[in-house]
Amino acid sequence: MSIPTQINHYLQLSGLKEQFSFFDQAFTEKTTAYFQALQQHIADSHNAKVQWQYQVPELGEGGACSLFGVLDSEPYDLTAILGGQTSANHQALARLTKITEFYQQQSGLAWFGIYQARANLEQEMVLVKLSYFGAASRAEFPLNTEFAKISNNSTVGLTGQARVINDVAAYLQQGGEYYTCDPKVKAEACLPLFAQSGKIVGIIDAEDLKQQVFTAEALALLVAVCLSIPECLPAIA
To answer: Rounded to an integer, what distance in angstroms lies between the CA atom of residue 112 and that of residue 185?
Structure first.
């Protein structure tokens, strides 16, 4: 499948094509350029610094929301949920680290995370954060309809339909579901990740402290990232 065809397929599958009107030839060309540059960046992943552990906020009552600014004394460790620090898992995380690095360099946004849909140690389906930059945030988002009532991440992970919010305050006023980890966040884009079969295999989440940041240019970068991630995810046994 050619890159332009992949782009068009993703836009349709994710519902983005129904949400915006700027998906034209120029958008396809920009997304293709980002995708090709990203592939070159990923190829040089042998020296990437893999992060197996990272700090997370303490969770509030019932685990429904994070206590902003209060970090848990124990860092989250990816080793168990990925089935060990194997060479294959290390390589996967290294490639995801390079994607995260590329996005940070190109976007200039405040926060970004890559999540994979996996069963956790309790055999519950969750979105687990594998790579990110920005402030400490939750490691796992439950993949169930109950949690989706308050979480865009879980909603996108269940439905495969992208959520792009350029004004969080207005979105909340309209009754939209939203999981607040950092109250300073003003805009968020949460996009699904698909396997070649069309199965939802995870999401990406990008956030910023300014409104109206998810322009056509910004979405071209995000779509290129979403097309690049699935083949880099750790295998699921």
So the answer is: 12
pTM above 0.85, yes or no: yes
Are residues 143 and 190 in contact, defined by beta-carbon separation less than 8 angstroms? no
Rounded Cα gap, residues 146 and 143, in angstroms: 9
> For residue range 137-170, what is the model confidence (pLDDT) as tens digits?
899 999 999 999 888 999 999 999 999 999 988 8
Q: What sign for the dihedral angle of Cα 12, 225, 177, 122?
A: positive
**Which amino acid is it at 177?**
E
Alpha carbons 56 and 149: distance in angstroms, whole number: 22
Structure tokens at 187: 């805009």
Distance CA 48, CA 235 (A): 19
Domains of the chain: 47-213 (3.30.450.40)
